[in-house]
Structure formats: structure tokens, C-alpha cells
Amino acid sequence: MKAQGPVEQCIRCVHFRNSPAYLESVFKGMNTMSSGHASVRKDDGVCLLHDIYLSADSHCEQFRGAACAHTGAPAASPVSEVGRDDERRMATYHFGMGALYWLDPDNDHSPFPPVERALRDPDGLLAVGGNLAPERLISAYRQGIFPWYSDDQPILWWSPDPRSVLFPDRLRISRSLRKTLRRQRYLISFDRAFDEVVLACAQPRPDQAGTWITPEMMCAYARLHAAGVAHSVEAWENGELAGGLYGLAIGKVFFGESMFARRTDASKAAFVHLVRQLRAWGYGLVDCQVQSAHLDSLGAENIPRSHFIQLLTRLCDQPGVPAPWELDPAIAEAQT
What three-state secondary structure class fits 111? Predict the structure, then answer.
């Protein structure tokens, strides 16, 4: 699951024009450059790079083949034109050895590029643009792609390699967490307070300046919850929400999005109950997206993206459990 703070990946920022819907979209606040790539920071926070290749298919006439406005350095030659028809308007922005693909925000069905074309630096950045319509989000997750961006950025789509996952039968519970579970400190529920869980996950942590869970994101996942695709897990103590998590279920895969804890082990208790229930239902995989010490302690591991995609191909087409979800009383009352 993604970190709760703002997106702070290393990315080569570019000011560009896309479709009329985006006009002047800007990558902002992501000014940490890889070595060997020059950058210029303006007072308004926009970072420009002169070594950008714009395809002949892009909507950026003013930048195509032009010199950098600030350094005077010549731009590299445009790459060969990307094929396009009326249904597929996808511009390509090349950064060094990789490329970013622009997705038409007015077409929910415009395809994602193959995940193998995601950038290595920053790891997994694949595309920009599009929208958060339910159809696009479901399509993205089925292909191993997820949105992750801050409030002042356009939608960014990622597919990192390797991928952090947890196999339900490899759940690991520490001795201290077993003590918490044995005491039954928290009452666990499913799908009781989805909006409240998402809102809690969106709150900035003490050591973070912002959040990637924007109002647009919250509305998008609320629509998926209403459609029975997104689910929440709650940990309650004395009637108060102490922790929880939310994510999507497609076929026999649970795609974790974010988790929070207001009290010790609350999110871990929620996660353990979820994984135990998923295992009982025959689910084969929990997508944790990016590695974290928190999830590693529970048994998450990194696998190659190619293996992850193979698992999605097999598991996402299997029948899942319809909403609303209910926790099995036997799992809820388990002492360890």
C-alpha cells in the first residue's frame, strides 16, 4: 500500500500543453532530478527540462523541437510519430531511456501502454492524464497499474518493478501482535465506515506535509465502493474508529490502497483479519504496491512485475465475493 504522504518521487518535470481539457497541466513539486539531467526551477514552482523529446503525435506545437526557453539548449529531435486513430489519442513524452504516455481524459476506454514501458527512474511511472472514472480504475488495477499523485499534479499512473505483494497463506504475525489479537482489544468490521476510513487515511502524518489522497481520489473510490468494488476494514475500540484500511477487490485479488492507525496495532489487527478472511474465501493475492517496513513485518514480499501480471491474469477473472463483505464470526473471535 502506498505511503500516506505526498508523492515525492524522483521525476523529470515538464511544462506542456495537452488536450483542451488540460490546457496547461504542470508537474509541480517534483524537482529532484537524476544525475546527468539538467533542470531549471522557476519562481512559480514549475520545473522545466530542455532534454525532452516530444512525439509528432503530441499536442505541444510550441515545445516540439524548440530550444529550452531558459537555458537556450537545443531540444532533442522528436521521436517518430506514434500511431493514432480516432479512438486512441495518446501522446508520448520521452525522458532519457523511458517514455511517459498521455491518456485522453475524455475517453475512459483509451488504452494504457504496456507496463513494460514504465520508467525505471522514477520506478514504475507509466502514464499521465486520463481520469478516475470507475471503468478506467478497474481497467488499470487489472493490468497492474494504479494512480498516485499529489493535489497540484495531473493524474500519474504507476506500475513499479518489483511489486510488493502478500500471499494470504504467508501472513506473518509477530509475538507482540499476537498478544494484541489474543486480548481482542479491537472489534473488526468490513464495509461499515468506508468514507470515514478513507478520510482518516488522507490525513497528513506528523512528519508529512500533505497527502496523495486528494478529494478527487476520495470521490473516485467512494463510487467504487457504491459499486461493490472497493471495501474498507475497520478496527474499533470502545465504539471509536482506531484504525483501518481500504482497497479494491477484483476477482480473487485484493488491491490495498492505504491504511491508518490511531492506536497501537489497530491497522495491523485490521489487516490480519482481512488476510485471514481472504484466505478463507480462496483469494490468492494481496497487492501491497510499494514496499514498506510496516507490511514487510506482516509477510509482504517483492516479486518481479512480470510474475505479478501473470498472477493478475489468472486471478482477476475468478469469481469474487459480492458486497457488502461480512467478517466470519469464527475469524473475528480467533484468539491468535
Answer: coil
